[in-house]
Amino acid sequence: MKTKTVFYLFLASIGIFALAVAGDQRPEKTSVENISASDLGEQVFVEGRILDSYSTGDSAFLTVSDGTGNISVVSFDGLTSFAEDSRIRFSGRVTLYEGELEVIAKNFYRID
Question: What is the CATH number of the domain that holds 41?
């Protein structure tokens, strides 16, 4: 019985360690210039500066530049707290709208 308990404690500690390491991983930052049609449906992680923005109801539409290019970013989560020229970090899914790549974003953070 004692051997089983030690074994289960060992497995639990490995699981806790694995969760801690996995939870601490930040996705690799993606340069706008590297986002392409091959990324459709994929998650990207971008940092950049808001060049332009407007909102309608709970939707916000941004143009973001990371120095390598510009991309349209859309949020349907009531994003209103970021002003133009703010530096932001966000993750989201790459989509195609009217022939142009854009990111449907989640998890916005101001980084100024």
Answer: 2.40.50.140
Q: Which residue has tokens 């949020």?
A: 75
Tell me the CA distances in angstroms from 84 to 15, 30, 50, 63, 72, one per residue in order: 43, 21, 5, 9, 14
pTM score of the predicted model: 0.72
Is residue 22 included in any domain, yes or no? no
CA-CA distance, 97 to 102, in Å (whole number)? 7
- What's the pLDDT at 107? 82
- Please tell me the distance from the alpha carbon of residue 9 to that of residue 104, in angstroms, as a whole number: 42
What number of CA atoms fall less than 13 Å from residue 84's CA on the CB side? 7
The stretches of 1-112 forming alpha helices (DSSP H) are 2-23
Number of domains in the chain: 1
Encoding tokens for residue 10? 């060992």
d(CA 60, CA 58): 7
